[in-house]
Amino acid sequence: MISEKLQNAINEQIVAEMWSSNLYLSMSFYFAKEGYEGFAHWMRAQSQEEMDHALQLADYLIKRGGAAKVDKVDVVPTGWGSPLEVFEAVYKHECHVSELIDKLVDVASAERDKASQDFLWGFVREQVEEEATAQGIVDKIRLGGDAALYHIDAELGKRQ
Ligand code: MG
User: Fold this and answer.
1) Full-prediction pTM beyond 0.85?
2) CATH of the domain at 11
3) 122 φ, ψ to 5°?
4) CA contacts within 13 A on the Cβ side of 92
5) How many domains is the chain built from?
6) What domain range includes position 76?
7) What is the model's pLDDT at position 73?
């Protein structure tokens, strides 16, 4: 059975993942309004992925005899500038999430909960991909400039 301390920490992460999901949904709506259909599609998929993370954490808690909670999720920003600024914000946010996940692993270590450490390492590895993906898009937009936006928008629109 999972300790109460780790259970609380994972429940906090569930809220953080739901906040991330809402953030990317908000970015998706912003892009849709600005006419960037591909970016909007990519952000919607990203939003769903974050909600999946919240559900994976909840399923794990329940499996370990804990209780998953749906708690209050703070409001997310609604306005940005250029696509470059939006994706820079994504990269910065993913770096923040990586720090949160690292701290969660620290809690699991302090609780000497090996199964939870093993489970959470999967999230640590996932964050490496999340940061790299966001950084890759930022680099592409920086290198290509405004002239490449139409092409990059079309490319990101192909995300499964
Ligand atoms: Mg996540």
Assistant:
1) yes
2) 1.20.1260.10
3) -60, -35
4) 7
5) 1
6) 4-156
7) 98
